[in-house]
């Protein structure tokens, strides 16, 4: 079942950089989709379209078969369903404490304080950051910030979670822990999309894989069809 889709998507930055050229990509409900590509391939730019942060120059994004609307109210609804964890956790953390930071999104949804607290506690457990809840975010280590930024997205309870280069710069142990967290979310029914330049990770983790190069999708399909292991 299709949930999210890019259709002939094109995007150009104000300086003239053509970042996406006729990108077509399907995200299916419940799958683990990896977008493999080197730096500058257009992965982040594509992700910014998936929850309406960027407006395409041509083509469209469809959610459950319908082109998304860029009206304020519709975007708020879309962002409840499509969450993005950015590569740099500092771009996502801005409250005084970890607890406040994770609460920010759910509070904005207008949920009761009780519901917000319940969601924050669950997100703290899922990301193994319970011991950090009272800590100021600026005192966290990089790995801790990364986990708290994920918790903030989880607390929104999105259907689809998009991770931009989540394991970039991580050592193998942290990478493995992170992949275990993704697999847990996946087993709970979330749709997970991640970008990476790690061929092994893309191959071993994903249900489906798309390869991006210079703003284009070169190939997509099942990992076994696209890559052969040496
Ligand atoms: P990736 O996430 O795969 O590394 P990006 O989507 O960040 O790729 O970048 C795609 C292309 O767009 C690259 O050529 C990059 O240099 C360019 N780009 C990204 N952000 C900007 C920006 N703010 N202004 C101009 N060009 C940009
Ligand atoms: P923790 O406190 O959870 O053990 P660390 O701060 O030690 O986390 O870092 C977790 C992972 O993130 C490590 O693999 C480390 O290499 C990586 N890392 C640390 N700082 C940065 C950074 N500035 N950019 C990218 N990766 C980083």
Automatic annotation (TrEMBL):
It is a peripheral membrane protein. It is found in: Cell membrane. Coiled coil: none annotated. This is ABC transporter ATP-binding protein. The chain holds residues 3 to 232 of 284 of the full protein. Transmembrane segments: none annotated. Belongs to the ABC transporter superfamily. It comes from the Bacteria. Part of an ABC transporter complex. Responsible for energy coupling to the transport system. One of its GO terms (biological process) is cobalt ion transport. The keyword Cell cycle does not apply. One of its GO terms (cellular component) is ATP-binding cassette (ABC) transporter complex. The keyword Translocase applies. GO terms for molecular function: ATP binding; ATP hydrolysis activity; ATPase-coupled transmembrane transporter activity. Residues 4-230 form the ABC transporter domain. Keywords: ATP-binding, Cell membrane, Membrane, Nucleotide-binding, Translocase, Transport.
């Amino acid at each position: 079942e299709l949930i999210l889709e890019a259709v002939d998507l094109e995007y150009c930055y104000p300086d003239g950089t053509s970042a996406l050229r006729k990108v077509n990509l399907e995200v299916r409900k419940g799958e683990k989709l990896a977008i493999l590509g080197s730096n500058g391939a257009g992965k982040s730019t594509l992700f910014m379209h998936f929850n309406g942060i960027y407006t395409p120059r041509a083509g469209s994004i469809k959610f459950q078969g319908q082109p998304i609307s860029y009206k304020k109210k519709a975007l708020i609804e879309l962002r409840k369903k499509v969450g993005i964890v950015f590569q740099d956790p500092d771009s996502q953390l801005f409250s005084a404490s970890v607890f406040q930071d994770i609460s920010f999104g759910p509070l904005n949804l207008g949920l009761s304080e009780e519901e917000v607290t319940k969601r924050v506690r669950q997100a703290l457990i899922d990301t193994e950051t319970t011991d950090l809840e009272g800590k100021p975010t600026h005192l966290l280590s990089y790995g801790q910030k990364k986990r708290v930024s994920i918790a903030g997205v989880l607390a929104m309870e999105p259907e689809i979670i998009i991770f931009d280069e989540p394991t970039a710069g991580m050592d193998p142990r942290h990478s493995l822990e992170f992949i275990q967290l993704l697999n847990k979310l996946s087993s709970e029914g979330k749709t997970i999309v991640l970008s990476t330049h790690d061929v092994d990770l893309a191959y071993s983790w994903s249900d489906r894989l798309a390869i991006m190069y210079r703003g284009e999708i070169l190939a997509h399909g099942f990992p076994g069809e696209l890559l052969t292991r040496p």
